[in-house]
Amino acid sequence: MTPETSFFETRLATDETDLLAAQRLRYRVFVEELGGDGTMVDHADRLERDEFDPVVDHLVLVDNRRSRQALDHVVGVYRLLPGDRAERFGRFYCDSEYDLTALRAAGRSLLELGRSCVDPAFRGGSGMFLMWNALAEYVLGREIEILFGVASFHGTDAQALAQPLSWLHHHHLAPATLRPRARPEGFQAMDLIPEAELDRRAAMTGMPALIKAYLRLGGLVGEGAYLDRPFNTTDVFLMVDTRAMSEKHRKFYETRQGQ
């Protein structure tokens, strides 16, 4: 434990204050920083919310130096929706952007990840490391087989994102037996540049950190990106087979422990 991480706690949200603080963080990131909006966004109280909030688990990163009363204590959040709960609710969030027929037909246990964000002061540091560890424990403890969600590029100009989108299409496309496809109303082809003309450095430079993190865990993408104009993002569908994730997780800890 480092001096910084001693102030952190990762857990599922336990009360209304945790939830409101998570929604406040989401507002700061998705609305104020990235320019998004939505039908249930509360601009007066600066809360980014939607109809999924009551049915998901909120994995939060808490900085215990910060004020709960000011809704400032949550500095990272992941929204988690297990497949059985989504079935009871009627849908996943991703259903609005991607056709998940093939993924559902695979008959494997699913977990949808969404609304992932971290306070700018803690990006790239140990906070995200703690979030990933907590996510791995949640996934492994519930015997999840496939985790998935949409990850976003800022903006909806596909040509400006041609290198990273094309890299994902040519190098990380999911097998057809599992592959979701972006819905027609927002569909954006990702094979914008021929594979032979790709510039790996440019592609990686333009790739958000969250997407690169999924790729390191063996992440695969769906067919086509989805242009989410209300949120001002270009979304890609990402999935990870947790058999690969758990192996990488085990090897990481063996390395850390000098085994």
Protein topology:
Elements: E1 8-12, H1 16-33, E2 57-63, E3 74-82, H2 83-89, E4 98-99, H3 101-105, E5 110-118, H4 126-141, E6 146-154, H5 162-172, E7 181-182, E8 187-188, H6 200-205, H7 209-216, E9 220-221, E10 225-228, E11 233-241, H8 242-256
Parallel strand pairs: 5-6
Antiparallel strand pairs: 1-2, 2-3, 3-5, 4-7, 6-11, 8-10, 9-11, 10-11
Give an overview of the whole structure.
The chain has 259 residues and is an alpha+beta fold. The protein has a domain at 78-256: Aminopeptidase. The protein contains 8 helices and 11 strands. It is globular.
Sum up the structure in keywords.
two-stranded antiparallel sheet, 8 helices, nine-stranded mixed β-sheet, 11 strands, Aminopeptidase, alpha+beta, 259 residues, single chain, globular
Q: Tell me the total number of β-strands.
A: 11
Helix content estimate: 25-40%
Overall 3D geometry? globular
What is the level 1 CATH name of one domain?
Alpha Beta
Summary of the model, kept short:
The chain is of the alpha+beta class and 259 residues long. The protein contains eight helices and eleven strands.
